[in-house]
Write a structure and sequence with these properties.
The protein is α+β, with helices and mostly antiparallel strands and 112 residues long. The protein is built from two helices and five strands; from the N terminus they run βαββαββ. A hairpin with a 6-residue loop joins β2 and β3. The longest helix is centred in the middle third of the chain and has 22 residues. The protein is globular. The model has no long low-confidence stretch (mean pLDDT 94).
């Protein structure tokens, strides 16, 4: 079943004083803007909307929704070698019919 969603995110360097962290975060942020499987809002820089095909009970659908976002963001983190020591992405996801906002962080742990 299709569920409408609203996703907002923030990309952060782990150490804002470290040029490597800042550079990786900027590259990740720029590539996230290019995701075309969801609609990017023009006037709000870090928001996507769209629909997700989800099934199961509420907890299962919430987990699947987070997984869909993680899949998109983790690919970009890996592409830039932005493991958790360099970059984190904080997310808030609202999915129609699934209740309260889902708040989570995306990082690549242990990735070299």
């Amino acid at each position: 079943m299709e569920h409408h969603f609203l996703l907002t995110y923030s990309v952060h360097p782990q150490d804002p004083d470290d040029n490597i962290d800042v550079d990786k975060a900027n590259k990740v942020r720029n590539d996230i803007r290019k995701i075309n499987v969801w609609k990017k809002l023009d006037d709000v820089e870090t928001v996507f909307t769209g629909e997700m095909d989800l099934s199961g009970d509420n907890l299962t659908m919430r987990a699947k929704a987070v997984s869909k976002v993680r899949d998109q963001f983790e690919d970009i983190l890996r592409e830039h070698g932005a493991k958790s020591a360099y970059v984190k992405i904080n997310c808030v996801l609202m999915v129609d019919g699934l209740g309260t906002p889902i708040i989570f962080e995306v990082t690549i742990r242990g990735y070299v």
